[in-house]
Write a structure and sequence with these properties.
With 71 residues, the chain is mostly helical. The chain has two helices and no strands. It has a domain of 38 residues.
Length: 71
């Protein structure tokens, strides 16, 4: 069992040791291309949801005041 485990460790080490520069570069570029739109649109989405929630709160507040007054 020990010999099997040692061979398995050795195979894992050799696989990790072999790195392909072009594969890593392509992986980095794809990651950047996927993250850039997310970084741009995330603050806009948060702003949209905050304004939407604030406007709904104000609308409900005014509706309740008008109902309480009797209009």
């Amino acid at each position: 069992m020990k010999r099997w485990r040692e061979r398995r460790k050795e195979r894992k080490r050799t696989r990790r040791g072999k790195s392909n520069f072009w594969y890593e570069l392509l992986d980095l570029l794809v990651d950047i291309l996927l993250w850039v739109p997310e970084l741009i649109f995330f603050p806009l989405r948060i702003l949209y949801w905050l304004l939407r929630g604030f406007s709904r709160t104000v609308k409900h507040l005014f509706d309740n005041i008008m109902d309480w007054i009797g209009f």
